[in-house]
Design a protein that fits this description.
single chain, mainly alpha, two-stranded antiparallel sheet, 6 strands, 6% strand, elongated, transferase, PFA4/ZDH16/20/ERF2-like, palmitate, lipoprotein, transmembrane helix
Length: 342
């Protein structure tokens, strides 16, 4: 190969590289979120999931003549199916954009609440001066923001009261965030934050599943499972073997995931607590079949679906007497009273 040919090839490569770099820079300027590799991969995952739904539904309406005819005769049937599709996708994006409940956010919320209580108490107390009594007023927002940095011991004291007496603060201080973690919290290396009631980091959603969005996640997999079953019934009529095989694999995974998280809800556990039980310091001394945070199946379901008014509701570890009560085998009468799995 002559030197001229080599120079031409190298020049073309440099030119194409420069063109691609300019194109990438222009895309990043228009869409700043694409410059982050993590967010870029998350967007690709979301796009792939939406495309899968579109492909399956598109093939149904293209190849199934009976479905098209049925849509004309019974429009409510197709409307219900399409409504479930839309609700599932909306629930997916709603869950992926929700906060799992971060420890730092809980600290700020605690600081603001404490600041507002202190401000209300101070404002009611008269202070003596030469001109008579005056009322002290404080900017609640500014005081709440400063409290976190000026007096973190309030949070530390409150959290450590949730652990057994004599527990070391260093044991439950995150080495990455430098914050004291309440029970059931864990640092997520993908999000680089400590998450309350950490369950797992979902790659498909691009976010952690924790206290703030576990209920939404459960509803999403329920809707996705129902949509997959309905789609599978329609695919059987069309006899589309390839799509039906792919959907069957996805359906088995969704059903197992739904059953697994339903079990976690009934027993008030997280995936991390179930899988890594022996690696969590405060769970090691608890018997295997005792669920320390469970309040009974009915109460667990109610708290999970209805009663949670705050994302930052923290749970205290049970004392020795409560653990002893939870370890007592339950009877049929206890099941009727919904003591099951407590």
């Amino acid at each position: 190969m002559t030197s001229f040919t080599r120079m031409t090839i190298m020049g073309c490569c440099v030119l194409s590289r420069d063109t691609s770099d300019r194109f990438s820079d222009r895309c990043f300027n228009i869409f700043p979120c694409l410059s982050d590799p993590v967010r870029r991969s998350t967007l690709c995952m979301k796009l792939a999931l939406v495309m899968l739904h579109v492909i399956f539904v598109g093939f149904l309406f293209i190849l199934d003549e009976d479905l098209i005819e049925k849509s004309k005769q019974q429009p409510w049937y197709t409307s219900m199916y399409m409504l479930l599709l839309v609700v599932t996708l909306v629930q997916y994006f709603f869950t992926s954009g929700s906060s799992p409940g971060y420890v730092l956010d809980a600290m700020r919320e605690y600081a603001k609440t404490e600041a507002s209580l202190r401000a209300s108490e101070i404002s009611k107390q008269p202070a003596s001066s030469k001109n008579g009594s005056v009322v002290v007023t404080i900017d609640n927002n500014q005081f709440g923001e400063n409290l976190l940095g000026n007096n973190p011991m309030n949070w530390t004291k409150m959290v450590m009261e949730m652990y057994p007496p004599g527990t070391s603060v260093r044991t439950y201080t995150c080495s990455y965030c430098s914050v004291v973690q309440p029970p059931r919290a864990k640092h997520c290396h993908d999000c680089d934050r400590c998450v309350l009631q950490f369950d797992h980091h979902c790659v498909w959603l691009g976010t952690c599943i924790g206290q703030g969005n576990h209920c939404r996640f459960w509803w999403y997999i329920l809707e996705e499972t129902a949509l997959s079953i309905w789609t599978g019934v329609l695919l059987v009529d069309v006899i589309m073997i390839i799509l039906l095989s792919i959907l069957s694999i996805a359906l088995i995974f969704l059903l197992l995931l739904l059953l697994f998280h339903s079990y976690l809800v009934v027993t008030n556990q997280t995936t991390y607590e179930l899988v890594r039980r022996r690696r969590i310091p405060y769970m090691r001394a608890i018997p295997e079949r005792v669920y320390p945070f469970s309040k009974g199946a009915c109460r667990n379901l109610y708290n999970f679906c209805c009663a949670r008014t705050s994302v930052y509701a923290l749970e205290q570890l049970p004392n020795a007497l409560e653990l002893e009560q939870k370890s007592v085998p339950y009877t049929c009468f206890d099941v009727i009273k919904c003591r099951c799995c407590c």
